[in-house]
Design brief:
CATH superfamily: YbaK/aminoacyl-tRNA synthetase-associated domain
Distance between the termini: 47 Å
Structural class: alpha/beta
Number of domains: 1
CATH topology: YbaK protein
Radius of gyration: 15 Å
Number of strands: 8
Strand content: 15-25%
Largest sheet: 8 strands, mixed
Number of helices: 5
Order of helices and strands: HEEEHEHEEEHEH
Length: about 170
């Protein structure tokens, strides 16, 4: 059964994780949310649901400004070439629809099929912001609490320095 926003907030509360939610019109892309984020402190995110041909599933949560070279990411993650996961697979594993991909959706991955990849640059912000399972709101939590939440769901985050990956790729060209 797919968790709701109420379920998410109950889990955060049970873990003693403080959170603040900002309601807004649905946002489907990072660009659509730019003006709305002005009153929300902290690092804002983009979240990508990816898979390789062997069905390795990956959730990337990154700082909105971070460049992610999907065509090169597989080397750093030691998996096959990556592409975006289909909407039905996204809903089956994380219980969310496109536009609502979020680290909070790890709550729905009780089978632990998804690898969680976290952008090192995001952790430079004390407060981090994610959709609370739907894209019509943004929920802010402390970065340490994000890590605690991920661990509580059974997902050990792999922290990746995407800026270093991009610099290395540029140097190799």
């Amino acid at each position: 059964m797919t968790a709701t926003r109420t379920d998410l907030f109950a889990r955060l509360d049970a873990l003693g994780i403080g959170h603040k939610t900002y309601e807004h019109p649905p946002i489907f892309t990072v660009a659509e949310g730019e003006g709305m984020k002005d009153d929300m402190p902290g690092g804002h995110t983009k979240n990508l649901f990816l898979k390789d041909k062997k069905n390795t599933l990956i959730l990337v949560s990154a700082l909105a400004e971070t460049t992610i070279r999907i065509n090169q990411l597989h080397r750093a993650l030691e998996c096959g070439r990556l592409s975006f996961g289909k909407p039905d697979l996204l809903f089956e594993t994380l219980g969310v629809k496109p536009g609502s991909v979020t680290a909070f959706a790890l709550l729905n991955d009780t089978a632990h099929r998804v690898r969680f990849v976290l952008d090192a640059a995001l952790l430079n912000h004390r407060i981090v912001n994610f959709h609370p399972l739907t894209n019509d709101a943004t929920t802010a939590i402390d970065r340490d609490d994000l890590l605690r939440f991920a661990h509580d769901t059974g997902h050990e985050p792999l922290i990746v320095d995407f800026a270093a990956l991009a610099a290395a790729a540029d140097a190799a060209q």
